[in-house]
Each structure stands twice: as C-alpha cells, then as structure tokens.
Write a structure and sequence with these properties.
mainly alpha, three-stranded antiparallel beta sheet, two-stranded antiparallel sheet, 15 helices, about 65% helix
C-alpha cells in the first residue's frame, strides 16, 4: 500500500480523479502528516518545513512515547516519578519496548522520509540559467535557504535510505544463529517472525523494494514514460521473486502479498498506458478506466481482510469443531460395553466332553498294589494324574 500511495507523487501521470483522491487518502500510510492536516490554510509553508517535520517527527515521537511509557510504568508500580530506579529485568523490558517502538516508527516513516530527503536534490531547469526545486517552484536551487537545509537532507539520507536497511540487516545477520532465543525474539522478532527461517532477511528486501519504488525512481527520467517503465520492471521482478520463493511462513500472508504486488503491477501498466496518451489513440472510456483502477486495490484489500479473518477466526473454529467431533466419537467407542465370552463354552474337543467336563480340574488317584515274592511283602504306591 505504501508504494501504491506514492504513485501520484512519484510519477507525472494524469491519473483519473477518483483514483487520485483514493491515493491521497492512502497517503496516511506514508506518514505524510502535512498533506492530511491541510496546514497551508493556517500558515504559509514550503518544502523545507515539510522536510524537517518528516525527518524529525519519528524521532520526536519515539522520545515522547518512551517518556510516557516509563512514567506510566512507574505509576503502575507505585514508584515516585522523581525516583525512576528500575531493576535489571524492568530496565531490560523497558529497553525492549523502546526498541520495538523505535523500529516500528522507522519502518512506517521510512518511505516518506526517504522521498523527502532525496527530493531536496531533485532540481529542474525552467530557463537557461536558473534551476528550481522540482517539488516546490518557490525554492531556487543553490540559494541560501536551499544550501542551509542541505545538512538536514544529507542526514536524512544517511539515516533513512542508507542507515535503516543497513542497521536492520546487521542486527538480523548478527543474531541469525540465535533467532529462536527469547531475548532476540523479544527485540527483533517482528523483523523475521513472519517469514520462513531461511528467509529471515526478507524484510530488508521489502525495505529496499519500497526504497526503489518511492525514492530512488524520482531520479530516473523524471516525467517520462521510461520512469514508469522502470517502476513496472521493478514491480514485475518483485512479484516473480515472491511467487518463486514464497518467503512468508503463513500461506495467507503469501496470498495477500501476491495480490498486493499484482495490483501494483497493474497500476504501473495503467500509468504507462496513460503516459503514452491511450486516451487520444484509443478513445477509452475514462469512467470505466477510473472505476477499474479504484476497484483493484479495494478488491485486494477486501480479499486480504477476508483471508485474514478466515485463517485467524473461521478456520480455527472449524478445526476445533472437527476435533471435538472426533473426540466424542472416540469416547463413545471406549465406553461401549463388550460382552465377555467364556473360553470353555462351545468347545468341542477330541475328548467328546461338554463344557463342564472341560472345566474340571485334574484329580489325583492313589493305587495300592501288593506283590508277594520270596516271603517278602512289598507295597508300591503309584500315583497317576488323569485329566
């Protein structure tokens, strides 16, 4: 969505009105605060005000949120605010929470901040001698104000387009052998937990893709069809890599990403068609074209929302009901009474006896015999066992 929301600002394309209005609504995803608040009516502002606010608002937000969280934790623990002395476990928990908040805000504000920092160096020549800032024609490139804000722009480039990907890549690669450790998951799990283990670095690939489509592309043939064509090629390569690798751990996330990248490819195709004046050559219906462009991201969003609800709510309920039915069936089989059959009943042996005689125990019989010989009397007892 962040790359889709940047289409109206990155490319010089005569997008349909409804589609442009929808992209302006999506600009909130790119952390573009000034475009949402319409502060032009309250006071006059230029590109430099927007640059400073976009670059340093995330840092200010992190400091404020951390301060609020620390004091809220102290109040919850009935600890005086003037004595914020925490135990080692509490300090580690606060540090982990602060790092997660900081990284999340960096990821959200990354596309807009990178674009603003690079736009400071994008100048166009309107006459033979003077160059003007492409995003604000009131600013002359090389003037005192433009040179004064050179340092924040350079810091912004070092911090966002270069610093954020390198920082996250170093952190993940450094802990790649301990990604299952609880402490590592607590701090960096949001970077790799959504992906398969062998694609633990894929979030950085996504960051680079967003950087190419929202920031770096402004220097590639600005305002020409080649710029849109390069964006289309980047989108097609990203979609092809995703379809071949399927890096997400959950199938639902893979499906949602496939739909998002497909919408982005179709939007670039539409932009390229508008750039080559398809309206003049083919006389297409603008209303239908606008409706199709608006419907594509809406359908993708609704389908992604349905897949999320289905995988997280409906499918577990269905599996739980299926398991309960299987459990009841197994318990019913276990509690069923099986009749015990006597081993001697109906047993017709070779001896021809009935069941009762077959159950008789062996009896003992003693036979006494007398043998007379040579005047000596001899008694012999013979014991035989008869079954």
């Amino acid at each position: 969505m962040q790359c889709l929301a940047a289409l109206s600002t990155v490319y010089t394309v005569d997008w349909p009105f409804t589609f442009t209005a929808m992209l302006d609504v999506f600009s909130v995803i790119n952390f573009d605060i000034l475009s949402l608040t319409s502060t032009d009516c309250a006071f006059e502002q230029n590109f430099f005000d927007s640059l400073l606010l976009t670059l340093f608002l995330p840092v200010f937000a992190v400091v404020v949120l951390y301060y609020i969280y620390v004091h809220a934790f102290a109040c919850k623990a009935s600890r005086p605010k003037s004595r914020l002395v925490f135990k080692s476990q509490e300090r580690r928990a606060l540090t982990d929470r602060a790092l997660r908040i900081f990284f999340w805000i960096l990821l959200v504000s990354f596309p807009a901040a990178s674009t603003k920092a690079m736009q400071h160096f994008k100048c166009i020549q309107l006459d033979e001698q003077v160059k003007w800032l492409d995003v604000d024609y009131r600013v002359r490139c090389g003037s005192a104000s433009h040179f004064t804000h050179m340092l924040p722009a350079v810091l912004g480039i070092l911090m966002y387009p270069i610093g954020v990907p390198l920082l996250l890549l170093c952190l993940v690669c450094q802990q790649r052998q301990h990604l299952n450790h609880p402490l590592v998951e607590e701090r960096l799990g949001f970077l790799y937990s959504s992906y398969k283990k062998k694609y633990y670095y894929w979030e950085i690939v996504e960051i680079v893709r967003k950087l190419l489509l929202t920031s770096c592309i402004i220097f590639v043939g600005d305002g020409t069809s080649s710029q849109v064509l390069v964006g289309l090629l980047v989108s097609i390569v990203s979609l092809s890599l995703h379809l071949s690798l399927q890096p997400f751990a959950e199938n639902t996330d893979d499906h949602i990403q496939t739909m998002s990248l497909s919408v982005l490819v179709l939007a670039h195709i539409a932009g390229l068609a508008l750039k080559v004046n398809i309206a003049t050559e083919d006389g297409y219906n603008k209303v239908v074209f606008d409706a199709v462009l608006v419907a594509l991201p809406i359908v993708a969003f609704v389908a992604g929302l349905w897949l999320t609800v289905y995988e997280s709510v409906l499918l577990p309920c269905r599996e739980r009901k299926k398991n309960e039915a299987s459990l009841r069936k197994a318990l019913k089989k276990l509690t069923k009474i099986t009749p015990i059959v006597d081993a001697g009943d109906g047993n017709d042996g070779d001896g021809g006896g009935d069941g009762e005689s077959g159950a008789k125990e062996p009896e003992e019989k003693s036979i006494s015999t007398k043998d007379t010989g040579d005047g000596d009397e001899k008694n012999t007892s013979v014991t035989t066992l008869r079954a």
